[in-house]
Amino acid sequence: MVNAVLLDAKDTVATVTKAIAPGEAVQYLAGGALCAIRAVQPIPIYHKISICPVDKGRDVVKYGERIGVALLDICPGEHVHVHNLGSHVHNPGSHVHNPGSHVHDLGSGEAGGT
């Protein structure tokens, strides 16, 4: 049964849709294929689980975008949260695009702008 969501093929994490116990299978769809990984730690509902190894200092990717850097080596099946995920702001050595590069002037401030 699918119990996690992979948002983009580039993602290194999936989001679980229920609380996951250690040893429990986490299943998600990737490119139409059913994939599975075993949780090695408890994962609270709507939190992230690593679906591949992420070395310390490397980018963690969700939504196809860098959301932070690994503070420690992260193994597949581990809970990814503030204990092992740091902000790019606190890691100046990380190769990260300018977060403001996606901000667009909406002109009048109304949705859709002019």
Q: What distinguishing features does this structure have?
A:
single chain, 114 residues, Archaeosine Trna-guanine Transglycosylase, Chain: A, domain 4, four-stranded antiparallel sheet, 9 strands
Summarize the structure in short:
By secondary structure, this protein is mostly beta strands.
Structural account:
The protein has one domain (4-102): Archaeosine Trna-guanine Transglycosylase, Chain: A, domain 4. A four-stranded antiparallel β-sheet has the order 1-2-5-8, with no helix packed on it. A hairpin with a 2-residue loop joins β6 and β7 (65-70). It is built from no helices and nine strands. Residues 94-114 have low confidence and may be disordered. Helices cover 0% and strands 31% of the residues. The protein is globular. With 114 residues, the protein is mainly β. It starts with a strand and ends in a 28-residue tail after the last strand. The protein has strands spanning 4-5, 13-16, 25-30, 33-38, 48-50, 59-62, 65-70, 79-80, 85-86.
Helix amount, in percent? under 10%
Q: Tell me the number of strands.
A: 9
Just give the CATH class. Mainly Beta
Radius of gyration: 16 Å
Based on Cα principal axes, name the global outline: globular
> SSE order in H/E notation?
EEEEEEEEE
- At the fold tier of CATH, the topology name is Archaeosine Trna-guanine Transglycosylase, Chain: A, domain 4
Indicate the mean pLDDT: 83
Q: Biggest β-sheet, characterized?
A: 4 strands, antiparallel
- Terminal residue distance: 45 Å
**CATH architecture descriptor text:** Roll
How many domains would you count in the coordinates?
1
Stretches with pLDDT under 50, minimum 5 residues:
94-114
Count of alpha and pi helical runs: 0
Strand order in space, largest sheet: 1-2-5-8
The assigned structural class equals mainly beta
Strand content: 25-35%
